[in-house]
Amino acid sequence: MGSIDIPQTQTVALVRDLGGSVEFKTDYPVPTPGRNEVLAKVLYTGVCQSDLHTRAGTAAGPDGNPITQIKLPHVGGHEGIGQIISLGPDIMHGTGIKVGGLVGIRFSSRICRRCEFCLAGTEQYCVNSTNHLHHEDGSFQEYIALDADYLTVLPDDVDPVVMGPVLCAGLTAYKAVLNANLRPGHWVVVVGAGGGLGHLAVQYARAQGALVIAVDTGPGKRDFICEIGAQEFIDFAKEDPIKRVQEITGLGAHAAIVTAGNAKAFAHACEMLRVGGSLSCVGIPPGRPCLETPICTIVIKGLRITGNLVGSLKECMEAVDLVRRGVVKPVIKVRKFKELPQVYEEMERGDIAGRVVLQIAQ
Ligand SMILES: [Zn+2]
Ligand SMILES: [Zn+2]
């Protein structure tokens, strides 16, 4: 890679007020990489439901409360793939960090490495962390400065077009599957299976040898979901999913992964589980609704309930590797950067099967 002219300004997709519209600003400053940072040119980025929540003003903040601490103006995007174009001072040698290398732009941007959660390898919960949703400008821009010490260094041979959605949707889906403790032949229900997160959860669950019952609705979803490997499809608008899961599994499913942002879906999922079953919560319903499952059901059935906020960098690299090896195949549709406002509208209507990826670099 030869020397690259780095411009002073760039185009970003900016939201001035939460709940406001997306505006393209063409004279936003290009960051200068500071000590131990790299500057990357953003090639592609996925569009996540939480970007939409943030734009719409319905997101939860870092403490789980409705957002009060989001940096404004807000530049979203946390499923980006970039290429390093320059290195700031003091980058350590021997770390695989090089100009021309591919890097991920993920939800977690910086961590402290010293708190209890960092030390435990669960650094996504770091008490001193920052992320590309609440605190720092994300991948809806042409250039980004990233912390070299917590850099997502990707192998040179990955396909940058498909890899973006793996970094948030894929990682979260992979983590939810790990938390479901699946064994070969176990039944897992994936609710919202046709969406960006759901279609990856179906495939990561299949990679563990589990049998998948996909729940979704809408034209074309059945064919789409069966093509990516689900054994059964339930159209929740046409059939009773709880009854159907009991019919298919006999005793109920071993696990349920709910990616839908709908509170009722979580309560229904608990009803689908067998004794000792686990519920992996992934979707975040807007507002602050509670899980409507009676405590007696949780106690008597011995259910296990986990929350899933992305995953660690190590788990991210495992999720990336399964895609790199062709075991999991993100289904994506590439759109232009300028189409982001329309993409948000389509996501609000639930029209998108798989994931939209925006092409950022021209
Ligand atoms: Zn996300
Ligand atoms: Zn920490």
Secondary structure: elements and pairs:
Blueprint: E1 9-15, E2 22-29, E3 37-46, H1 49-56, E4 80-87, E5 102-105, E6 108-110, H2 116-119, E7 130-131, E8 143-147, E9 152-153, H3 160-179, E10 187-191, H4 196-207, E11 211-216, H5 221-227, E12 232-235, H6 241-249, E13 253-258, H7 263-272, E14 273-281, H8 295-301, E15 304-307, H9 313-324, E16 332-336, H10 340-349, E17 355-359
Parallel strand pairs: 10-11, 10-13, 11-12, 13-14, 14-15, 16-17
Antiparallel strand pairs: 1-2, 3-4, 3-8, 3-17, 4-5, 5-9, 6-7
Bound molecules: zinc ion (ZN) (2 copies).
One zinc ion (ZN) is lined by residues 111-112, 114-115, 117-118, 123, 126-128.
Structural description of this entry:
InterPro entries: ADH-like_C (IPR013149), ADH-like_N (IPR013154), ADH_Zn_CS (IPR002328), ER (IPR020843), GroES-like_sf (IPR011032), NAD(P)-bd_dom_sf (IPR036291). This is Enoyl reductase (ER) domain-containing protein. Belongs to the zinc-containing alcohol dehydrogenase family. It comes from Penicillium steckii. 27% of the residues lie in helices and 26% in strands. The protein is of the alpha/beta class and 362 residues long. The chain folds into 2 domains: 9-154 and 331-359, Medium-chain alcohol dehydrogenases, catalytic domain (Quinone Oxidoreductase, Chain A, domain 1, Alpha-Beta Complex), CATH 3.90.180.10; 170-307, Rossmann fold (3-Layer(aba) Sandwich), CATH 3.40.50.720. Strand 1 (9-15) and strand 2 (22-29) form a beta hairpin. It binds zinc ion (2 copies). The site of one zinc ion has 10 residues, from helix 2.
